[in-house]
Amino acid sequence: MPGHKYLFRRATAEDADVIRELVHAAYAKWVNLIRREPLPTRTDYDQAVVAHQIDLLYDDDHLVALIEMIPAVDHLLIENVAVRPSVQGAGYGRLLMRHADLLAQSMALRGVCLYTNAKFTENIRFYRRLGFRVDREEPFLDGSLVHMSKAV
C-alpha cells in the first residue's frame, strides 16, 4: 500500500458512534452464519471506549479499521478487530495485529490473546498465519469460542 498515509489514534468518548457503525458494518457478514448478532455488535461502546484501549486506523484521513484491546497481567487481550467491508483484504487487519504486538511489547507483556467464534474459519486461518495457536475451545451460546494466543 505504497503512498498511503496511516495513522493510529486512540479513540475517545466522542468516537463511540463511529465505532459502533464500523463494527456493525464489519460484522454484518457473520449474522447469517451464526444466526444472531455477533457479540461485538452488542457492545456498549460509550463504556468500552473508556474501559478499554480502542485504537482507530486511518488511511489518508479515512477511518478504515479499529482494534479494541484490554491489557492483563501478562498478556494483551484483543477484544475486537473490525475492518470496513469495502477494504477487507487490503492488509489493514495485519496492520492492526502488528500494532497490538508492538503495544504488548511496549508494555513488557509476554503475549497477545484473542478469541473468536469457531464458525469464523477465515479469521482463524488469518490468525494462524500471524503465528497464533489454538489454546482451547469452549462452548458458548449456540456454538463455541476458539481461544488463541501467541508470544511477542
UniProtKB/TrEMBL annotation:
InterPro entries: Acyl_CoA_acyltransferase, Bact_Acetyltransf, GNAT_dom. Residues 6-152 form the N-acetyltransferase domain. Coiled coil: none annotated. One of its GO terms (molecular function) is acyltransferase activity, transferring groups other than amino-acyl groups. Pfam families: Acetyltransf_7. It comes from the Bacteria. PROSITE patterns: GNAT. Keywords: Acyltransferase, Ribonucleoprotein, Ribosomal protein, Transferase. GO terms for cellular component: ribosome. This is Ribosomal protein S18 acetylase RimI-like enzyme. It comes from Amycolatopsis endophytica. The lineage of its organism: Bacteria, Bacillati, Actinomycetota, Actinomycetes, Pseudonocardiales.
